[in-house]
Amino acid sequence: MPVPARHGSQPTGPAATVPSAPQPRRLRLTKTSVEGLNPPAEGETVYWDSDLTGFGVRVSKTGRRTYFVQAHTVAGREGKMRIGVHGVVTCEDARGIARQHLGAVAAGLDPFEDRRAAKRAETERREAPTMDQLCDRYLSDHAEVHKRAKSIVDDKSKCTRLIRPRFGKRRVAEIQRDDIERLHRELRETPYEANRVLALLSKMFNLAVAWKYRADNPAQGIAKFPEEPRERFLSDDEMKRLVGVLAAHPTRVTACAVALMLLTGARRGETLRAKWSEFDLVAGIWIKPSGHTKQRRAHRVPLNAPALAVLGEMAALAEQRARAREAHGLLPLSDEAAAYVFPGGGDSEHLKEIKRFWSTVCKRAALPNLRLHDLRHSYASILVSAGLSLPVIGRLLGHTQTATTARYAHLQDNPLREATRIVGDVVGPVAKELLAITHEPEQQPTKRAKRTQRAQRAQRAQRAQRAQPPTVA
Where in the chain is the domain with CATH 3.30.160.390? Predict the structure, then answer.
C-alpha cells in the first residue's frame, strides 16, 4: 500500500507519479499511420514525421487531419505553411511539397514570404475602408467643416441616393474608372446631376488619396456631359406683374423677403438668414457675414431706396408683433428670434420654407418656369443693360472670379446695338446714295466693240498655234 507523502515533501511511488506536459509525437507519417491517429478530447495534437524534419500533421478534436511544414529561415524567422487536409491531399503529395519548401530553406531562400505577404494583403483588404466609410469621413471631416449648409444637405442626398447603394459595401481601393463611368452614363438623362455626382466622387477620391486609402483618383479625367446654361431674365412687363403681386400679397414677411432678393440680387439663403445686425439703415449698407455668403467672405452691398423701404416695413411689422404678444400676455420673442429680419414660425428660427409661396406668386403673375435664383439674373441684366461694367456688377453680386460675371457679357450687346442704331439713322441716307452709285448697271457693248473683241480672240489663237513645236513623222 503506498505511503502518503508528507506535507511539503515530493511524492514517491507509482501512485504519486506526476504526469508530464504533452510533447509533440514523432512517427513515420503514412496514409495508414495518419488515419490511425486518435483525435484529442480538446484542442489539437501535433505529430511530426520521423523521416523529414519540419513535416507534420495536426489532428483536431473533430478528427480533421491537416498537413503542414515548418522551418526556420537563414534570417532566423520561423515559417509555417498549411499544405492541405488529409483526404484532399495524399500523405505522399504533402511530403513532396514539404520537401520542396525545406530544400528552399536549406538553400538560403524564404519560401514562406509569399504566403506571409498574401496573408498581409488579405488582412489589409479586409480592414481597408469601404465606400460607406469614405462617405462618412468625407461628410464629417470635409463637408461639415468647409461647405455651406445647403451644400452639405446636397452632398448627403447624393451619397444616400446614388453613391452608397451603388458602391457602399465595396472597398475604396477596389473602385475602378469603369465603375464611375457606368454610373455617370446611367444619369445622362439628368446631365446636371450626373456632373455634380461625378464632381463629388472626384473630390472624395482626392481626399481618399490624401488619407492613404488608395494611390489614385479613378474619377479624374472623365468627360462631363454638356450642360445648357439656364438664363431666365424678367422682361419689363414681367417685372411689373411680379412687383404688383408682391405688393398686394397678404403674407408680408415672405413678400418682403422676395422683394429684397429682387432689389439687391442677394441669394435666397443670404436673405432668409439675414439679421438686423448686418444692416446699417442710416448709411444704407448691408454687410453680409462670411458664414452666409457662397464665397465665404464678408460682402458689403449698398442698398437702394426701395430696399430700405422693404426693411422699414419689416421693422414696423416686428413692432406690431411685439405689441400683439404683449397685449395677449405672451412673453416677448427671444433675442435670437428677434435678431432675424424675416422671422419664421418658431420662437428661435428664421423664415425657411417659401416654395409654396413662390409657386402661388408665379401663378398669379403669369410667370411660368421662373425660379427664385432667376431674380438674381434679372438684377444683373438690369445693371448690364444700364451700361455698368462687369467688374462693378461682380462686386455687387459678390463674385470673386470675373469668369462668373462674364456669363452676363452678351447682355452688353443691347446698349451697344442702340448706339449703332443712332449712327445708322444719321449715316443711312448717305449710305443709300453711295450704294446706288457703286451698283449702277453696266452698259451693253456696241457692235463695233464686239467686232474688236472677236478680232483680238482670233489673233491670240493664231499666236498660240505658231508657238507649238512641229511634229516629227
Answer: 23-127
Long-range contacts, 25-30 (Cβ 8 Å, 24+): 26/50, 29/55, 29/56, 29/57, 29/91, 29/95, 30/91
pTM of the complete model beyond 0.90: no
Average pLDDT over residues 113-118: 72
pLDDT tens, position by position, 310-346: 999 999 988 888 888 778 777 767 667 778 899 887 6
Q: Phi/psi of residue 316, each to 5°?
A: -65, -40
Q: What is the rounded average pLDDT of the residues 3-10?
A: 42
Q: How far apart are CA 194 and CA 163, in angstroms?
A: 12
3-state secondary structure of 65: strand
The CA radius of gyration of the chain, in Å to the nearest whole number, is 45
Element (H, E) at 279: strand 279-280
Helices 373-385 and 390-397, interaxial angle, to 10°?
150
Domain with CATH 1.10.150 in the chain: 131-210
Cα separation of 363 and 367, whole Å?
A: 6
Looking at the DSSP bridge assignments, the partners of residue 280 are: 285
3-class DSSP state of 350: strand
Residues found in the chain: 473
Class of domain 236-376: mainly alpha
For residues 57 and 68, the answer to whether their CB atoms sit within 8 Å is yes
Helices marked H in 128-175: 131-137, 144-146, 149-158, 164-167
Q: What would the CATH number be for the domain defined by 131-210?
A: 1.10.150
CB 81 within 8 A of CB 116: no
Strand partners, 45: 59
CA distances from 250 to 318, 370, 451 (A): 16, 21, 93
Residue 265: closest CA among 404, 364, 91, 114: 404
β-bridge partners, 130: 171
Residues of the chain with CATH 1.10.443.10: 236-376
> Domain 23-127, what architecture?
2-Layer Sandwich (3.30)
